[in-house]
Design brief:
heterodimer, A: 481 residues, two-stranded antiparallel ribbon, 22 helices, 2 strands, globular, B: 455 residues, alpha/beta, Rossmann fold, Alpha-Beta Plaits, 4 domains, six-stranded parallel β-sheet
């Protein structure tokens, strides 16, 4: 572990963050929202501190080991979130630093859980930054840095792996930098498409940008207190549903499709399972809410599709208060929280691919009981999944459930009621946002104690970095030379 | 440039590593999942699981957009089929194939290269033998690199405890031997590599690299107290491809006595059939008594060339202890290279490294005449032709900002050999040798931009 190397990488990330905050400057100027001096001050300070370090260490042609990768990724997510919290805090938008940190971590990890009671009161530039954190965190701030800074090129794969949510990482291109650039390009293309469509559907440019950031990153921050229920427009709901579903898919598939091979989708088992689960849940919920809460068939279909997509992709937008829906519907949505999107998407959760492999593994165990001498290979899209990957996935799922239970228990100890605690820990660990009961779709996390908030900040971080990256830092062996 | 490598063995891995450091786009295919994992964890290249001879795998590796195919698996057949397949799928790409049994083609009418549309056919064993012979030409050298068609040589030698150079600074050496033109561009001390300045002092057991014009070398060696008599008798252990080829080449050069030891009777027969003057000895165990009975004391060079790396290293050390002045050992592991020379093996022969270097030279063909990595892969020697447009020419070197970690080693102008100083002016057309640490390579590239180009 070289501190110089780690410092070089982190100073680069701080510069990237500072430049991202700077994009709020034009927004502030356009809306004249009175926080321009704050933002300029923050950007200036960050560049002044990290800029020289970045320039000095730029030539550090370091090779990062896997170990460095874990440290850099965990550390930089904490640092970047802390920096991202400063605008919320300094402008007085949120009262304490813990609140600001919660908001910022929730942004970068694309959770979308808010502590803010009245978001419509916030200055426009702060709202913009709040949504932008989603967009940056969605594809990954390190993937972004790898794409634009040659600094992290050599050995960047280690960090890349630690950040991209996928059990198996395939490189699209020969080098990390090119792979990162390709992924960001796909991301940007989809983002621009959604902004244009939302504008056409009647949303203003500012709101459509913010909601696009929220949905492409599967985040869920809205610029309205009522989230998307504010617009009550089927066109907007349908557009956002489609883009949430796209964001929850593996970006490698989008890349192949954009290259002219749309058959990549149908060849992927993960895609098929994802779509089947989505359709099944949508139909079930639509059937149950039809006539009860929504009068027409189309209305109930749109609402149930939107809500299913929103929870399943771990976005967390609300188009209606689904806490009023029947318990069966709520329970289905709650289960979908754990599934999350596909591997290599911007979504959180356990991921479709892992669950498919777990299912196949269970099936294999059953078959082995019947034919003890059978040799059965677990395949994914025609490729054999090796035992080490299966083991790692089983452990991941177990750890995920373990962290969820532990944090639920801790929340209950800190005097949160059980239903809320179950919902809040699942919603933060899977990076969704809205949970159950007191933290439901139209509520927020503002009322919680600081202890609870810090626990949930941790949940969001480990959820986004897929557990191992953070938990490895707690293993004694890691620090021994 | 995007390069497709078939086979992630020792050679393929080494090539991929070098090329990815140079920021080339490398895709590597191997059929062992372990190798693929190993490569993708350690290198910034795309590693794919698949058979190099299968069109599906080649398609998946985007052969259509690659400019070069390097087939370096252990199997000649796979390499040939991969090249032929590449010829069908992308006729414009350059193709390099490793062939172990090159002599089969030489004995027939089929030319391995042309007949299969391969641009470069390479046999690592043959490259290793060529390199070994280069080294053997310079008495007492551990390593030799030729520049300017052999007119300049860079060679490394061990500093023994009785060397007259011990404790001397480079500055004092230069003033004492000012009549001779030479340069010490690198010193290997333990695991450290030093690009020395005038104040650095020579220690015992250092491996000193010296650059000089070829004709002055015998004289320099005499002044430095190095043994400069050409070797008279050779003992080679192992009738492997490298062993037999070395014996053959030595025979052709008319070297003195050559003895080849092998345990396998079949291989002995084969070797005896191929060789004329060499005495082939069959012996199961190579121990002190056997070596003594075969006259190890009178042997000037002992080369352990079996397929077993460990056996080679230990036997070479045994021979050294029994009084052989120069011993060599063959190894297939790149990591062993430095260690072996550190424990006293004078010449380390690594076919895969030699093969990889040859391929890299082919890939970088252009204005760069040659590129050689010194052991440890930290320092690289680049030979190039100074272009009129380069920033280096037509002004005194003093005025050029040279990156740290790099030195301009030598200039060959026609038949004249120069060790440049601050006042030297490089003319267009001069051959220039630069020594540089890996970190400084991009800066050197910038400096000679027009010189360092890929086709």
């Amino acid at each position: 572990m070289g501190f110089r190397r780690i410092f070089a990488a982190i100073s680069a990330l701080i510069v990237v963050t500072a430049l991202s905050i700077a994009t709020a400057i034009p927004v502030s100027l356009i809306y004249n929202d009175g926080v321009i001096t704050h933002i300029l001050m923050i950007v200036g300070t960050l560049l002044f501190v990290a800029g020289p370090a970045f320039l000095l260490l730029r030539d550090e042609r370091a090779e990062y080991s896997l170990k460095d990768g874990f440290i850099i990724v965990s550390l930089s997510w904490i640092i970047v979130s802390a920096i991202g919290a400063v605008p919320f805090w300094i402008t007085g938008s949120l009262p304490t630093f813990v609140d600001a940190m919660f908001e910022s971590m929730s942004g970068f990890t694309t959770t979308g859980a808010s502590v803010c009671e009245d978001v419509e009161k916030l200055p426009h530039s702060i709202l913009f930054w709040r949504s932008l954190t989603h967009w940056l965190g969605g594809m990954g701030i390190i993937v972004l840095s790898v794409a634009i800074l040659p600094l992290l090129g050599v050995g960047g794969m280690a960090m890349f792996k630690a950040e991209v949510p996928s059990p198996v990482m395939d490189k699209l291109k020969p080098t990390v930098t090119q792979t990162a650039k390709t992924l960001w390009l796909v991301y940007i293309i989809l983002t621009v498409a959604e902004i244009v469509l939302l504008c056409l559907a009647g949303m203003n440019v500012f709101d459509s940008m913010c909601h696009t950031f929220g949905s492409m990153a599967t985040g869920g921050f809205s610029t309205k207190n009522l989230s998307l229920a504010y617009y009550n427009s089927n066109a907007i709901n349908i557009i956002i549903t489609i883009f949430m579903l796209l964001a929850g898919l593996n970006f490698t598939l989008h890349y192949h499709a954009l290259c002219g091979k749309p058959s990549a989708y149908t060849k992927s088992l993960e895609f098929l399972v994802y779509i089947c689960v989505f359709s099944g849940a949508t139909l079930f919920i639509a059937y149950n809410v039809y006539g009860l809460h929504h009068d027409s068939v189309s209305e109930s279909l749109v609402q149930s599709a939107f809500q299913t997509a929103s929870i399943m992709t771990t976005t967390g937008f609300a188009s209606t208060d689904w806490e009023k829906w029947p318990w069966a519907c709520q329970w289905i949505l709650f289960c979908l929280m754990f599934m999350g999107g596909c591997a290599g998407s911007t979504g959180g959760g356990i991921k479709c691919m892992r669950l498919i492999i777990v299912a196949k593994h269970i099936l294999r165990e059953l078959k082995l009981l019947i034919h003890p001498r059978a040799v059965i290979a677990i395949k994914m899209d025609g490729k054999v999944v090796g035992t080490p990957i299966i083991n790692s996935i089983m452990a991941f799922v177990a750890l995920f459930v373990g962290v969820w239970s532990a944090s639920t228990i801790l929340l209950v100890i800190m005097e949160v009621d059980v239903i809320t605690a179950i919902g809040a820990s699942a919603a933060t660990l899977s990076n969704i946002g809205p949970g159950l009961h007191l933290v439901g779709p139209l509520d927020n996390y503002g009322w919680m104690s600081h202890g609870c908030k810090i626990l949930l900040i941790f949940n969001m971080l480990v959820g986004r970095l897929e557990l191992y990256t953070v938990f490895i830092l707690f293993v004694g062996d890691f620090w021994k030379r | 440039m995007s390069i497709l490598i078939i086979g992630a063995g020792e050679m393929g891995y080494h090539l991929a590593r070098r090329l990815s450091y140079e920021k080339q786009d490398v895709v590597i295919i191997d059929q062992s999942p372990d190798r693929v994992n190993f490569v993708s964890e350690n290198l910034d290249v795309q590693a794919l699981l698949g058979r190099g001879s299968s069109p599906v795998a080649l398609e998946e590796a985007r052969i259509n957009s690659a400019q070069m195919l390097v087939a370096v698996t252990d199997s000649d057949e796979v390499n040939l089929v991969a090249c032929m397949m590449a010829g069908l799928m992308n006729p414009f790409m350059k193709k390099i194939a490793r062939l172990r049994r090159l002599e089969d083609y030489e004995r027939s009418d089929i030319a391995a290269g042309k007949s299969f549309g391969i641009d470069l056919v390479i046999s690592p064993e043959r490259e290793a033998v060529a390199k070994l012979l280069q080294v053997l030409q310079v008495p007492a050298a551990t390593d030799v690199v030729d520049f300017a068609e052999g007119r300049i040589k860079l060679f490394g030698f061990h500093l023994t405890v009785d060397s007259p150079l011990l404790g001397r600074s480079l500055m004092s050496l230069r003033s004492e031997f000012s009549s001779k033109r030479f340069l010490i561009p690198a010193i290997f001390r333990g695991s450290e590599i030093i690009i020395p300045g005038g104040k650095d002092i020579l220690n015992p057991y250092d491996i000193v690299y010296l650059l000089a014009a070829t004709e002055t070398i015998p004289e320099l060696m005499k002044m430095f107290g190095l043994k400069s008599t050409p070797p008279k008798s050779f003992m080679i252990l192992g009738a492997t491809t490298v062993g037999i080829q070395t014996a053959l080449s030595l025979e052709r050069q008319g070297a003195g006595r050559i003895r080849l030891i092998e345990s396998d009777p079949v291989k002995c027969e084969e070797a005896a059939g191929l060789l004329d003057h060499t005495l082939v000895l069959k012996s199961d165990n190579v121990d002190e008594d056997f070596l003594r009975s075969e006259g190890i004391e009178e042997t000037s060079v002992f080369l352990a060339m079996t397929e077993d790396d460990n056996h080679n290293a230990l036997t070479a050390l045994l021979a050294k202890r029994m009084g052989v002045h120069r011993v060599g050992a063959l190894t297939n592991k790149v990591e062993y290279q430095r260690m072996l020379s550190a424990i006293g093996v004078d010449i380390v022969v690594n076919p895969r490294l030699a093969g990889a270097s040859r391929i890299l030279q082919f890939i970088r063909k252009g204005k760069v005449v040659s590129v050689s990595m010194l052991p440890g892969e930290v320092v690289e020697a680049i030979e190039f032709e100074a272009m009129e447009t380069s920033q280096l020419v037509d002004r005194p070197l003093r005025k050029i900002r040279f990156p740290s970690g790099a030195i301009l080693g030598a200039v060959q102008r026609g038949s004249e050999f120069l060790i440049p100083d601050g006042d030297t002016i490089i003319h267009p057309g001069d051959r220039v040798v630069v020594f540089t640490r890996r970190e400084a390579i991009p800066k050197i590239e910038k400096l000679v931009t027009v010189g360092l180009e890929y086709f």
